[in-house]
Amino acid sequence: MNTIMLEKMNTIKTLNVISEGGLNVFKNNYKLDDDHENPDAILLRSFNMHSMEFGNKLKAIARAGAGVNNIPVDKCTDEGIVVFNTPGANANAVKELVLTTLMASSRNLFDGVAWTKTLTGESDQVSKLVEAGKKQFVGKEIRGKTLGVIGLGAIGALVANDALDLGMEVIGFDPFISVDTAWNLSSHVQRAMTIEELFANSDFITVHVPFTDTTGGMFNQATFSLMKPGVHILNFSRGELVNEKDMGPALESGIVGKYITDFPNENVLKMDNVIPIPHLGASTKESEENCAMMAARQVKDFLETGNIKNSVNYPNASLPYTGKRRVAAFHKNVPNMVGQITTALSSFNLNIADMVNRSREGYAYTMVDIENDVNGDIIPSLEEKINQIEGIVTTRII
Ligand SMILES: NC(=O)c1ccc[n+]([C@@H]2O[C@H](COP(=O)([O-])OP(=O)(O)OC[C@H]3O[C@@H](n4cnc5c(N)ncnc54)[C@H](O)[C@@H]3O)[C@@H](O)[C@H]2O)c1
Ligand SMILES: O=C(O)[C@H](O)COP(=O)(O)O
C-alpha cells in the first residue's frame, strides 16, 4: 500500500521526445525534468519501460500514442498507477501511410525507385534505359481488389472507409468492435464472420489490432496456408503479430507476395519482398502534436482533479471539480469499499458532497468530494485511516 501526498510542484518526466504543444500544457505548478528519479508522472512514446524501476511518487504514465505493450500495465494497476493512451490521435497519420504503401507496393514503386537510382552516371542513356527497364516493375491496380482489414478500431475503420473510396472491396473482421466505430464504419464494408473467411478472400490484408497474448503470432504457417497466393500483408500494428520464422518461407514460396512492415528487424530485413518502414506510422507533425496534447491534458487533469479519461487500466471516472477537498482512492473491486471509505470520513465529522465509484475487472476507483472546509492538519490522519482499509491500493487527498 502506498500513500501519495499531493504536492504543490508536480514533476513530469519524458522518456521520448514529446511535441512542444504537449509540454506547454504543463505550466505553473509543474516542473519538466527528464533526469528526475521520482517523478509524479511520465510521458512517453515507444520507450520500453518493462525493466524500469518506479519511484514511489509515480501516479500516472501517459503513452502519447496507441499501443501500450511497452508499459508494464499490470504492475501499474497493482500499484495504483494510472496508464493513459491517446485513442485515435494518430489514426489519420497511420491510415495515410497504410494507403500510401498499399498503392506504392502494388505498383512496385519502391523497387522501381531503387533501380532508377542505380542509373546514376549513365548520362544521356538514362531515358533509354528507363524505357527498356520499366517492364520489370509492371504493377497491379488496387481498384476492384479486396482488402481485408483485421481490427476495425480507430485506424482500421479509417482505412476501410477510404479503401472503399479508392474502389476496393473491403472485408472487415473485429469481434470486439466498439459501438462508436461501428457507427463510423461504412455499411459497404463487408463483415467477415471468421478471420479465416477474411484470409481466404483478400488480395491485400492490413492488420490494426493491439499486440496481446491472443494476437501475437496471428500470422503464421497455418494462417498463410489459408490466404490467396501472392497476398500483400501490411503490418502497421506490431512486429510480434507475425511469426517471422514462418514469414520467410511464405515469402520465398510466393504465398505472401509482399510484406510491408513498420517494425523491421534484422531477420525481416534479410527477407526478399519485404518493404521495411522505419516505424513512421504516427510520425507526422500533426499526429505527434495531437498525441502529446491529449496525453498531457489527461495527465494534468488527473493530477489536479483525480478525473480519469482514456485510461487503459483503471476505469474512466469524472466528477465536476469544485475546488474543495476530494478523496481519490484506488482499491480492489470487493464489497463494502465505498462504505468503509465513507465511514472513515464520518469519523472525522466530514460530510459528503458528491461521489463516484467505477470498477474495471479486479480494481475500482472512488472519488468522494467533501462538503466541509477541511483543516489541512487532519489530512495526514485521514489519509492514513483510509489507507488502513484492507483492499485500498493508494489514496490521494486533492
Ligand atoms: N505504426 C504506428 O506508428 C502505429 C500507430 C498507432 C497505432 N499502432 C498500433 O496499431 C494498433 C491499433 O491502433 P488503433 O488506434 O486502431 O487501436 P484501437 O484500440 O482503436 O483499435 C483496435 C481494434 O482491434 C480490435 N481487436 C482486438 N483484438 C482483435 C482480434 N483478435 N481480432 C480482430 N480485432 C481485434 C479491437 O476490437 C479494436 O476495435 C495499436 O494497438 C498499436 O499497436 C501503430
Ligand atoms: O502505438 C503507437 O501509437 C505507434 O506505434 C506510434 O509509436 P511512436 O509514438 O513511437 O511513433
Automatic annotation (TrEMBL):
Q: Which reaction does it catalyse?
A: (2R)-3-phosphoglycerate + NAD(+) = 3-phosphooxypyruvate + NADH + H(+); (R)-2-hydroxyglutarate + NAD(+) = 2-oxoglutarate + NADH + H(+)
Pathway where this protein functions: Amino-acid biosynthesis; L-serine biosynthesis; L-serine from 3-phospho-D-glycerate: step 1/3
Q: Does the keyword Oxidoreductase apply?
A: yes
Under InterPro entries, the record lists: ACT-like_dom_sf, ACT_dom, D-isomer_2_OHA_DH_cat_dom, D-isomer_DH_CS, D-isomer_DH_CS1, D-isomer_DH_NAD-bd, NAD(P)-bd_dom_sf
Keyword entries, A-Z:
NAD, Oxidoreductase
Q: EC number(s) in its UniProt entry?
A: 1.1.1.399, 1.1.1.95
Q: What class of enzyme is it?
A: oxidoreductase
Q: Which residues form the ACT domain?
A: 326-398
Q: What protein family is recorded? A: Belongs to the D-isomer specific 2-hydroxyacid dehydrogenase family.
Q: What does this protein do?
A: Catalyzes the reversible oxidation of 3-phospho-D-glycerate to 3-phosphonooxypyruvate, the first step of the phosphorylated L-serine biosynthesis pathway. Also catalyzes the reversible oxidation of 2-hydroxyglutarate to 2-oxoglutarate.
What is the official name of this protein in its record?
Answer: D-3-phosphoglycerate dehydrogenase
Q: Which organism is it from?
A: Aquibacillus rhizosphaerae
